[in-house]
Design goal:
Length: 191
C-alpha cells in the first residue's frame, strides 16, 4: 500500500512538472508589433497615431489555456505623422511624457472558446493611473517561422477605453469624445 501511495505521489509530481513545462516565454517582436489609437475629431474625421517604440513578453501555456502578456509603450515615440500634434500629445495636456514616459498593459486573464483565444484581460496603466482593460482577439495564431526557425505567436486585438479615467481629458470641454479605440497587433518569438 505504501509503495502504491509513493508511486501515485511520484506520478502526480511528474504530471505537475510536465504541465508546468508547457508554459513557454515569447519576446515581443517590435517589427511585427504595433499599438495604435483612434479618436473621433468632432465626428468629421478620425485622428490616429501609433507608438513606434515598444517592448514586452508573453507567457503562454496552450494546453492549460493560460498566459500573461506585458507590453510597454514609450510615450515619446508617439507618431501621428504630424510633428506638432505629436508634441501636443506628449505634453502635460494629454500624455505628459516627461512625467509618465511609458504606458503599460499587463494581462493575465486569457479567455478561450475551445482552442480559439477570444480575449485577454488585465490592467492598463496610462499617466500613472491603472484601470482594468479587456482586449478582444480578432485573430490569433501560432506558427513556425520559416525565417527565424522558431515558433511565433501573435494576433490582432482591440479595446475601447474612456481616456478620462486615466486623467487624459484634454478637449472634452470642446466636444472631443472620451472614448479612444486601441488596436494592438502583436507577434512574439518563442525564447
Amino acid at each position: 500500500m505504501r509503495n502504491s501511495l509513493l508511486a501515485l505521489a511520484a506520478a502526480a509530481t511528474l504530471a505537475a512538472g510536465a504541465a508546468h513545462a508547457q508554459t513557454a516565454t515569447y519576446a515581443v517582436d517590435p517589427t511585427h508589433t504595433f499599438a495604435t489609437f483612434e479618436i473621433s475629431h468632432f465626428g468629421a474625421s478620425v485622428n490616429r497615431g501609433r507608438f513606434d517604440k515598444k517592448e514586452g513578453t508573453v507567457q503562454l501555456d496552450k494546453a492549460a489555456k493560460t498566459g500573461k502578456v506585458e507590453l510597454t509603450l514609450d510615450i515619446a515615440s508617439i507618431n501621428t505623422g504630424t510633428p506638432s500634434f505629436d508634441k501636443h500629445l506628449q505634453s502635460a495636456d494629454i500624455f505628459d511624457a516627461a512625467k509618465f514616459p511609458t504606458a503599460k498593459f499587463v494581462g493575465d486573464k486569457f479567455t478561450f472558446d475551445g482552442d480559439k483565444l477570444v480575449s485577454v484581460a488585465g490592467d492598463l496603466t496610462i499617466k500613472g493611473k491603472t484601470q482594468p482593460a479587456t482586449f478582444k482577439a480578432n485573430q490569433f495564431a501560432c506558427y513556425q517561422s520559416p525565417m527565424l526557425k522558431r515558433e511565433v505567436c501573435g494576433g490582432d486585438f482591440e479595446t475601447t477605453i474612456d481616456r478620462t479615467q486615466f486623467g487624459a481629458d484634454y478637449g472634452v470641454q470642446y466636444g472631443f469624445p472620451k472614448n479612444v479605440r486601441i488596436v494592438a497587433q502583436i507577434e512574439a518569438v518563442k525564447q
